[in-house]
């Protein structure tokens, strides 16, 4: 079964820093001991991808078994929505949701409130609703077909980082990740790399 793990609305400031305005996650498939670390890493990945998604751009960035779908609507407010799913989640409903939630957020919350954003319950509602992409497609069938030619699929998160920038270095330098989350990332990466079969 396909899965949506997190949904976030991020404001990319003029300095290029991403600030989460609204975010929700569904981490029920992880053990109690992993949830905090996984949640921190999902927030970190969402922020990193949002900061590297240009105005008007849609892109999907894969890291391991997860894909971060991101959409930057452009404009003065620099709002970016990011949805992290498993690799089997279909692209069209993901980007339909990202576009819809940004439109609703921009209408409901003025830019003057971005420094202290009010709660936005639609984020949690959409995270739950879009767990089933077939239901999501029925919800979105009124909207025009998404122009998928603008979507850039990157094979790894490394490809959206700046030249010479490494995910390992970003994780080490990040203040957003606890020492436990950094250790979780390194352990998971080490376990995945030891089992490559040629």
From TrEMBL:
Residues 138-198 form the V-SNARE coiled-coil homology domain. The keyword Electron transport does not apply. It is a lipid-anchor. One of its GO terms (biological process) is endoplasmic reticulum to Golgi vesicle-mediated transport. Keywords: Cell membrane, Coiled coil, Lipoprotein, Membrane, Methylation, Palmitate, Prenylation. It holds the Pfam family Longin. Belongs to the synaptobrevin family. This is Synaptobrevin homolog YKT6.
């Amino acid at each position: 079964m396909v899965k949506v793990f997190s949904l976030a609305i991020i404001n990319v400031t003029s300095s290029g820093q991403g600030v989460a305005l609204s975010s929700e996650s569904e981490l029920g498939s992880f053990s109690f001991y992993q949830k905090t670390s996984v949640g921190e890493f999902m927030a970190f990945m969402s922020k990193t991808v949002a900061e590297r998604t240009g105005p008007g751009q849609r892109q999907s960035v894969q890291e391991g078994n997860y894909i971060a779908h991101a959409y930057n609507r452009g404009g003065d407010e620099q709002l970016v929505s990011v949805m992290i799913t498993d690799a089997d989640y279909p692209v069209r409903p993901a980007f339909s949701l990202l576009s819809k939630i940004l439109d609703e957020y921009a209408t409901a919350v003025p830019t003057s409130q971005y420094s202290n954003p009010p709660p936005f319950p639609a984020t949690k509602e959409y995270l739950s609703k879009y767990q089933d992409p077939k239901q999501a497609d029925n919800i979105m069938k009124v909207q025009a077909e998404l122009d998928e030619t603008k979507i850039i699929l990157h094979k790894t998160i490394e490809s959206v980082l700046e030249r010479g920038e490494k995910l390992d270095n970003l994780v080490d330098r990040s203040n957003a990740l606890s020492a436990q989350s950094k250790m979780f990332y390194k352990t998971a990466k080490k376990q995945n790399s030891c089992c490559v079969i040629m």
